[in-house]
Amino acid sequence: MNEVSESLRNARAALLSERNPAAHWTGELSTSALSTATALVALGSVDPERYSEEVVKAAKWLVDNQNEDGGWGDTVKSYSNISTTLLCWSALTKFGGSDSGGAIAGSANWIQNYVGSLDPSLIAETVKARYGKDRTFSVPILMLCAICGTLGPKGWGHVLQLPFQLAVFPRKWFGMMRLPVVSYALPALIAIGYARFRQGWRGYRRQSWVWPKVSKLLTSIQPASGGFLEAAPLTSFVTMALVAAGEKDHPVAKKAVEFLLKTVRPDGSWPIDTNLATWATTLSIKSLLGKPDPTQQRWAPDLTLLDQRGELLEWLLGQQYREVHPFTDTPPGGWAWTDLTGGVPDADDTPGALLALHLLRDKKSSESIREAAGKGIVWLAGLQNRDGGIPTFCKGWGALPFDRSSPDLTAHTLRAMHVWHPEMRSDIQEAISEVRENGLRYLFREQRSDGSWIPLWFGNQHRLKDEENPTYGTAMVLRALDELGEFPQADRGARWLMDHQNKDGGWGSLKNETPSTIEETALAVSALAWRTEAIEATARGRNWLIAATHSGTKFEASPIGFYFARLWYFERAYPIVWTVEALTRSEAVLANA
Question: Is the pLDDT higher at 145 or at 301?
Fold first, then answer.
């Protein structure tokens, strides 16, 4: 067995070992200082004595994981940033106790160096400037600081009012109203807006009648788990806002506390989200059930690599939403990132599920799978924006960064529709053709002059100026264009990837200026594997992967993922999944070169 085959065998074994007893994958998200700080303040605000054990452990975790420069990043592998450092500094100032003195002083010094002083007005302006017109995260940060007293005795005066009263309008109007928060932040809009109102924003004094209506709405959109989006930060912000509004006993706060207590890790910390089970599972299926046929540029499923396909298929079909989602008001047919109740159907997990189902299907289940696929395709078609691109959650919410159309989501959608097109009835085929035509025009417009594309939900923290990750975006779009036969634009994307390979053979996000990572290298290798002009670059990238993973046995995850509001995370499954896919594709192609 040669080194490539051995590395691939090891990597596949590592990926299969990650399956849970229910036959699918759960993955493991990185622990987050930001999540831990917000959960600490939420529990401490509700009842610091009752939750003293969780408060003490969370504070200790923050102290133990402070960066050497005095700040905190979103993950233990991340650079310090102003948002997370402010949250941790404030949380420890209010609830940290005597053992946190050194950490508080160090973080105060970091903030002073970054902002220029600890003046509340300057801190507030710095936070607002970081997020611009998007108040999804700037307002919650400043609210937490006000609650903890780090913005001084008039701290609430620095917290902008969110128009919570607008939540009484029909959901379909929200895109037209150009709200100052993104589509998935409705709970924060309601709870924080009301808290600010109760803290004395006089302009809304006459609108207290709105609260019973929006309170009922807030209760109705809280998932059974209690966790909004399964995310500790959003859930925590809602909880502390309700306490600040005098609603500590609100049923939403009680369920939210239960969620936080259930999701805390043994060391006292919280991840950014509970899990990405559906996303990790569809990525794993796509990487394992693919035996590339380079002569036809397609995936030919190798079903021998994965047992319990029936259980896996049943589980994946069970994750499709069959009712209008109460959170975003989107119709049935989509998939979310998680199998938990706080998930929301989106335009990355839905095409991922469609591609996975296409690989999993067999004769016995083909009709039910085809029906589910048709519903998913219709759901995606209904999401397409007027610009031809595909957004994440809701059509028409393009005013703020994380609601806009995205090249990577659009490319993923086109790939999924392409493989299912021959098997759909005529009306769905027509919808696919329309989405494809408009989607391709969007992708061609979005291609940068250098040939690259920029993704929405992934970045690179080493690019300090813009945090962009054209390696991920270009690899995703290149895969789609090659599979759809759109070669002129694909050729330019391939050239960009080849030109931006690091000297060591791997890929980061900026040639020789950002370090090579397993995730980015694997994505680039997979995208270039079928291209004859990229044989040398593919071989060098594959060799880098083999060395970096110790022949497919060790996988160091890097924080390239963006969660809501540009929060960094890393996921244990990513380097394993993408290494398996890259080695599979490159092994077959290079063997025939």
Answer: 145
- The pLDDT confidence band at residue 507, using thresholds 50, 70 and 90, is very high
Q: Which residues have C-beta within 8 Å of that of residue 422, sequence separation ≥ 6?
A: none
How large is the greatest C-alpha to C-alpha distance in the chain, in angstroms? Answer: 77
- pLDDT single digits (tens) 33-46: 999 999 999 999 99
CB-based contact 82:67 (threshold 8 Å): no
Are 168 and 210 in contact, with CB atoms under 8 Å apart?
A: yes
Dihedral sign of CA atoms 194, 198, 202, 207 in order: positive
Phi-psi group of 463: left, alpha or beta (phi > 0 → left; psi -120 to 50 → alpha; rest → beta): beta
161 compared with 438, residue with greater pLDDT = 438
Inter-residue contact 164 to 194 (CB < 8 Å): yes
One-letter identity of residue 389 = G
Whether 536 contacts 494, CB under 8 Å? no
**What is the model's pLDDT at position 217?**
86
Provide the β-strand partners of residue 293.
298
d(CA 293, CA 590): 12
Q: Which two tokens stand for residue 559?
A: 């924080």
Would you state the torsion angle of the CA atoms of residues 44, 50, 56, 57, taken in this order, to the nearest 10 degrees?
-100
Beta-sheet pairing, 31-32 with 561-563: unpaired
Task: For the chain, list the domains and their CATH numbers.
Answer: 1-29+275-295+450-459+485-593 (no CATH), 31-271 (1.50.10.20)
- 236 contacts: CB under 8 Å, gap ≥ 6: 35, 38, 39, 41, 42, 256, 260
With a cut of 50, say whether residue 576 has pLDDT above it. Answer: yes
CA nearest neighbour of 374 among 336, 405, 332, 410: 332
Averaged pLDDT for residues 60-83: 97
